Amino acid sequence: MRSASTEPRLKLFDPENRVAEAPRMKRVRLKQIINVLAEAAKSDRTWLSDFSDDEVKISADLYEVLTLYRRLRPSA
Question: Sign (positive/negative) of CA torsion 67, 73, 74, 76?
């Protein structure tokens, strides 16, 4: 028999009182995800586009390198 403190609690969903939760964030090193992202981009995986509007935080140095690379690479 369950005690009152272990009884499951049901929450009613009320869209009027809905509070937006902040997205959970996870810190990872670029080397942990770069191969997966490159393969997903190369294979044109649709799940990658689901996150296309998400912001990522990168160092100023990496931003500078990426910006220069984008300007210097030959056009397709």
Answer: negative
CA triple 52-33-25, angle to 5 deg: 65
Nearest Cα to Cα of residue 54 among 32, 75, 25: 25
C-alpha distance across the termini of the chain, in Å: 69
- Global pTM reads 0.59
Reported as a single tens digit per residue, the pLDDT across 41-75 is: 999 999 999 999 999 999 999 999 999 999 998 76
8 Å CB contact between 48 and 41: yes
